[in-house]
C-alpha cells in the first residue's frame, strides 16, 4: 500500500480478557507500536479502571465514542485503515496486514459507517457490520480459547528469549508477560513468573518457583523461590529460598538474603547479610551489616509506622527486636535476645534482656 497506514481496533468485552497478565487488547496495541503504525485508534464499549493503554493512541469510549470515531475517520480520509479485533492478541508485527479483518481507506469506511445511520453503537456491532472477513485467528471469547492463546503466546515469548541467549532448560511452569526484558546468559528455571514491567540483567539465575512483578534485577543475581514486588535488586545478590521482597525495597550489590526472610519498604546496603528467619520493615540498613537469626523490626504501633536506621558494619544479634523508631550506630552491636527501644551509639554494645539466674537443685525440689 502506498498510502499512510492507520489501525482501528475495536475492543469489546472479550478484548479485556487477561492473557499472560495483560488484557488482550494491550498485546494488539504493542504489536501495532512495534510494527511501526504511527496512527492508532481504539474504539471500546468500556475500559476497566485497571487497564492502562498508551497515550499515543486515540481512545474513544462512552456516549460520544461514535461521534469521535467519525471525526477520526474524517481526519484519515485518504489513509489505509486496517481494522483489528482487540480480542485477537496473536497478531504479530509481520502479520498485521494479514490479520486485519478489513482494509479500506478512511473515507470509504466513514461512508459505510454513516450508512449504518449510527445504529451500531458497540464495538461488537461495528465489527459485524464493517468487517466482511471471517475470523481466521482465535478470539478470547471462551476459557478454552484463552488457554490456547496463552499457550501459543507463551511459546512465542520463551522461544524469542532463547534466541536472545537466555537459558531456559525446561519450559514447564514458566509464565512471562509483556514488558519483560531478560539479559543474555541468564537462566530461567521452572515455576518462574515474570509479570508487568520486569528487567533482569545478564548471567542471573531466576527460579525455581520465583515470582517477580514490576521490579529490576541486576547482573549475576540469584533468586530461588522468591516473591518480589515493585523493588530493585542489585548485582551479584543472592536471595532465597522462601523470601518475600515487598514493594519499595532496594537490595544493593552483593547482599545475601537467606531462607524465610521478609523485606518491606527498606533499603539494604551493599554486602549486608540477612541469613534466615528475619523481618526487616521500613528500615535503612548500611553496608556490611550482619543480621542474626530471628531478628525483627517492630515498625508498627497499631496506628503509625516508623523506621529503623542501622549503620555500616553493625551486628544485630539473634532474636533481637528493634522497636522503631530506633537507630543502631556504625559498628554497633546488639546482644542476642535483646529488645532495643533506645538508640545505640557507634561502636557500642546494647544488652536489653533479663539477667539469667540459676537456681541450684531446683529440679530436685519439685520432683
User: Judging by the overall fold, what is the CATH architecture of the largest domain?
Assistant: 3 Solenoid
CATH topology of the largest domain: UDP N-Acetylglucosamine Acyltransferase, domain 1
User: What is the helix tally?
Assistant: 7
- CATH superfamily of the largest domain, by name, is Hexapeptide repeat proteins
- Name the shape in a single word: elongated
Distance between the termini: 98 Å
Percentage beta strand: 25-35%
Low-confidence spans: none
Number of domains: 2
Catalytic activity: alpha-D-glucosamine 1-phosphate + acetyl-CoA = N-acetyl-alpha-D-glucosamine 1-phosphate + CoA + H(+); N-acetyl-alpha-D-glucosamine 1-phosphate + UTP + H(+) = UDP-N-acetyl-alpha-D-glucosamine + diphosphate
GO molecular function: glucosamine-1-phosphate N-acetyltransferase activity; metal ion binding; UDP-N-acetylglucosamine diphosphorylase activity
Keywords: Acyltransferase, Cell shape, Cell wall biogenesis/degradation, Cytoplasm, Magnesium, Metal-binding, Multifunctional enzyme, Nucleotidyltransferase, Peptidoglycan synthesis, Transferase
GO biological process, one term: peptidoglycan biosynthetic process
What does this entry look like structurally?
By secondary structure, the protein is of the alpha/beta class. It folds into two domains: 5-130, Alpha-Beta Complex (Spore Coat Polysaccharide Biosynthesis Protein SpsA, Chain A); 146-350, UDP N-Acetylglucosamine Acyltransferase, domain 1. Helices cover 19% and strands 30% of the residues. It is elongated, with a radius of gyration of 28 Å. 38% of the residues are buried. The model has no long low-confidence stretch (mean pLDDT 92).
Amino acid at each position: 500500500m502506498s498510502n499512510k497506514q492507520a489501525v482501528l481496533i475495536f475492543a469489546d468485552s472479550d478484548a479485556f480478557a487477561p492473557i499472560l497478565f495483560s488484557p488482550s487488547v494491550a498485546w494488539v496495541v504493542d504489536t501495532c507500536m512495534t510494527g511501526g503504525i504511527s496512527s492508532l485508534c481504539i474504539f471500546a464499549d468500556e475500559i476497566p479502571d485497571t487497564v492502562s493503554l498508551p497515550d499515543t493512541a486515540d481512545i474513544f469510549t462512552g456516549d460520544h465514542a461514535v461521534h469521535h470515531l467519525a471525526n477520526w475517520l474524517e481526519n484519515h480520509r485518504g489513509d489505509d485503515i486496517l481494522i483489528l479485533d482487540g480480542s485477537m492478541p496473536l497478531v504479530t508485527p509481520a502479520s498485521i496486514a494479514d490479520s486485519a479483518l478489513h482494509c479500506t481507506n478512511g473515507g470509504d469506511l466513514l461512508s459505510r459507517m454513516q450508512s449504518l445511520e449510527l445504529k451500531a453503537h458497540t464495538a461488537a456491532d461495528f465489527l459485524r457490520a464493517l468487517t466482511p472477513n471471517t475470523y481466521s485467528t482465535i478470539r478470547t471469547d471462551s476459557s478454552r480459547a484463552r488457554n490456547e492463546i496463552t499457550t501459543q503466546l507463551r511459546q512465542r515469548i520463551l522461544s524469542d528469549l532463547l534466541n536472545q541467549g537466555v537459558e531456559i532448560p525446561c519450559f514447564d511452569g514458566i509464565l512471562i508477560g509483556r514488558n519483560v526484558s531478560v539479559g543474555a546468559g541468564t537462566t530461567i528455571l521452572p515455576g518462574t513468573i515474570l509479570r508487568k514491567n520486569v528487567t533482569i540483567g545478564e548471567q542471573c539465575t531466576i527460579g525455581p518457583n520465583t515470582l517477580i512483578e514490576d521490579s529490576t534485577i541486576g547482573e549475576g543475581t540469584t533468586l530461588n523461590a522468591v516473591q518480589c514486588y515493585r523493588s530493585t535488586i542489585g548485582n551479584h545478590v543472592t536471595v532465597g529460598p522462601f523470601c518475600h521482597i515487598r514493594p519499595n525495597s532496594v537490595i544493593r550489590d552483593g547482599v545475601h538474603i537467606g531462607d524465610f526472610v521478609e523485606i518491606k519498604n527498606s533499603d539494604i546496603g551493599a554486602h549486608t547479610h540477612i541469613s534466615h528467619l528475619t523481618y526487616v520493615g521500613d528500615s535503612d540498613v548500611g553496608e556490611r551489616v550482619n543480621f542474626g537469626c530471628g531478628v525483627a523490626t517492630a515498625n508498627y504501633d497499631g496506628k503509625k509506622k516508623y523506621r529503623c536506621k542501622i549503620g555500616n558494619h553493625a551486628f544485630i544479634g539473634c532474636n533481637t527486636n528493634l522497636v522503631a523508631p530506633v537507630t543502631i550506630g556504625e559498628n554497633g552491636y546488639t546482644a542476642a535476645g535483646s529488645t532495643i527501644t533506645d538508640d545505640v551509639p557507634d561502636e557500642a554494645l546494647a544488652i536489653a534482656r533479663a539477667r539469667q539466674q540459676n537456681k541450684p537443685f531446683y529440679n530436685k525440689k519439685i520432683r
